[in-house]
Design a protein that fits this description.
Structural class: mainly beta
Radius of gyration: 16 Å
Number of domains: 1
Distance between the termini: 41 Å
Number of strands: 7
CATH superfamily: Translation factors
CATH topology: Elongation Factor Tu (Ef-tu), domain 3
Length: 129
């Protein structure tokens, strides 16, 4: 048996720790132009400030249409967007790990959206000179 003295109960060991990822959310309130929208991200044991880097698409359940690159999202729409956090956090896709793939977005003490991680945007390896 290998001993890891720096590990404690409930520590998380993962392959990726990243700061950029695609999410799919169900919006509970109006989300303004998400290109610079700041709110709090809550996922498993992490609470951190997050910025919506890009609004990729919205799905309107009434019309059953998906619009690419919309300027904003309305209440009740399904949203796919890219989130960015300042420090790297441990997340995984919902398909791989449901516990690490769930998230909540909160602003001013209210839950504005719940969702799941759809895709990890891994950093590209730097080219050797």
């Amino acid at each position: 048996m290998v001993a890891f003295p720096f590990l404690q109960l409930n520590d998380l060991i993962c392959v990726y720790s990243l700061s950029l990822f695609h999410i799919g959310i169900k919006s509970f309130s109006f989300l303004p132009s998400l290109h610079s929208y700041d709110c709090m991200l809550h996922t498993h044991t992490v609470e951190c400030e997050v910025t919506a880097a890009k609004l990729v698409s919205i799905f309107n359940p009434k019309t059953k249409k998906e619009d690419m690159n919309p300027p904003f999202a309305k209440q009740g729409q399904g949203v796919t967007c890219v989130l960015s956090v300042k420090q790297s956090i441990v997340v995984d896709t919902y398909a791989n790990s449901q516990a690490l793939g769930r998230l909540t977005l909160r602003d001013e003490g209210k839950t504005i959206a719940v969702g799941k991680v759809l895709k990890l945007l891994l950093p590209r390896p730097k080219a050797k000179e």
